[in-house]
Design brief:
mainly alpha, 8 helices
């Protein structure tokens, strides 16, 4: 493992710091971004002319020759393109049942984890790694053995140690600021939904905060047809 990330050979579960949400992930896989019922419509949309550009990017990612290992640097060696290659292969297994692609995504993610070195509190990069880990776990679930499930589950809190919200995600505000963006809403939630059956603490500690602290303020704001943080923050919001 990368130097300083600690021992990930034993289960790394954490006590719940928020109440268990009233809404829980559905049974079965896939369930991150889509379920099996959505796959026929996704396949149909993949041939739609409006999606030609996205399909070109997707196919190039599938064709990329990479093993997932990152170049060794003393500082942050995050590589979003490599995560894109991993995500594309996992998606191909989920949509088309391409076992070779699914196994490749799993092996690439293991290599990525073994060589990753995120910068301290580099929350976007660490969050992207968490989200893709959740996608691979969910989309390639049938190909994972117990040891790999444990490894991927343990790496979520390891990567989350570089998030500004921390782990468990108790830091930053619940109404505005980085704490109400992708760190919890997308990254930790993707992993939590994917791993709920084996690692309920990830979902409870991320979705639990959303239900306890973040829904009521938005009900208030949305009555005014208003996004409390505005819409002009690069492309992020």
């Amino acid at each position: 493992m990368p130097s300083g990330l600690g021992d990930t050979n034993a289960p790394m579960t954490y006590p719940a710091v928020y109440p268990t949400p009233s809404v829980l992930p559905p049974a079965g896989h896939p369930r991150v971004y889509f379920t099996a019922d959505d796959i026929p419509r996704i396949k149909q949309n993949m041939s739609h002319p409006e999606n030609a550009g996205a399909m070109e990017v997707y196919n190039k990612a599938l064709e990329a020759q990479h093993d997932g290992k990152l170049a060794q640097k003393t500082t942050n060696n995050y590589n979003g393109a490599v995560l894109g290659y991993i995500q594309a292969n996992a998606f191909d297994y989920a949509i088309n049942g391409n076992t070779e692609r699914g196994k490749k995504a799993i092996d690439m993610l293991k290599n990525y984890m073994a060589t990753a070195n995120h910068g301290l509190f580099d929350y976007n990069n660490a969050g992207h790694s968490i989200a893709v880990t959740g996608m691979v776990y969910d989309w390639c679930y049938d190909l994972l053995d117990d040891d790999t499930k444990e490894l991927f589950g343990n790496m979520v809190p390891v990567f989350a140690s570089n998030l500004e919200v921390g782990w468990p995600p108790t830091k930053q505000g619940a109404v505005t600021g980085h704490g109400t963006e992708g760190q919890i809403y997308n990254d930790l939630l993707a992993a939590g939904i994917a791993m709920y059956d084996e690692r309920s603490d990830i979902y409870v500690n991320s979705a639990g905060r959303i239900f306890k602290e973040m829904i009521e303020p938005r009900k208030f704001f949305y009555k005014m047809h208003l996004q409390p943080q505005g819409v002009h923050y690069a492309s992020y919001r």
